[in-house]
Amino acid sequence: MLLSRLKTLTAAAVLAVSGLAGVHAADPVKAGFVYIGPTGDHGWTYSHDVGRKMLESQSGGKVKTAFVENVPETADAERVFRDLAQKGNKVVFGTSFGYMNQMLKVAKAFPNTIFMHATGYKTSKNLGVYDVRTYEGAYMLGVVAGKMSKGNKLGVVASIPIPEVIRNINAFTIGARSVNPAVTTRVIWVNSWFDPGKEREAALALIAQGSDVLMQNTDSPAVVQAAQEKGVLAFGWDSDMSKFGGKAHLAASVLNWGVIYKKTMDEVQAGTWKSGDLWWGVKEGAVNIESFGPGVPADLKKLAEQRRDDIKSGKLHPFTGPLKDQTGKLILAAGKSYTDPELKKMNFYVEGVEGSIPK
Q: Which residue in 63, 313, 318, 328 has the fewest CB atoms around it within 10 Å?
């Protein structure tokens, strides 16, 4: 009798432990996101947050996310990364280039936490980097700009002079000159990712100088709003910005960070994640040209979408020779294309871009 009761109690204990183990196994994996700007910027940070929400909604309860917005690229970022790691986030995503050294330092202090840095280039055993090929979107917008400009003068409101931004300016110009060799591009740098006031001032200055189609590599819709006000044309950057300038908005280069976040978390949960350099574009569904305005002719929309499809298939690479720099010097022979390492070090303007890169 006693032996029978002991067996019963032992079986019950095993079931109880098994049940607890099952509950524990089903606990969601926590991921923290650190943003340079506000989630309502309608640009870079907004697109990352859309990706975060997509990740969580598609995880079936297996991933739980948190975020911290408006984190400057200073020592304060290090504090935020440490805090997220200490709170049990298995993965911490830092979504701005200027977080690089802070993330590298914190990754060393938390070897059991995985860190992923957007747009960076420094890695370690538990620190990987990821990015979207934004230059592909810039190229497609350039094709539309080249056809839509009446005065052959384009303008770019640029953020910070790093290879990523220079690459986008060049790709935009290459796309435009592929359909209209007469166009030129002027650039005004605002030295900030998100400063609606400066972005607006830069847009108005470009318009005053004769630019009739504007692109931006900044985060707010201020450029589109200024274009709408002054009767010129512009593009959404990182997201659809048509609601801020219905008549001005030609199309948008829309980023889909969600596909990268899902891939990363799937690998973490499967135990297969390894540090590396992930750079996805049109082919993987990470960037697309969308939200064409009513003023874009049907044949031009078809042309832009055909260029997109050619990029996706590998038939087209925006940086393929013959390619000249702004001095007219041949820098890439016909049929040759820049490699990823070369693209990531870009520090010159291509033919058609006016002015110089700030030091």
A: 328
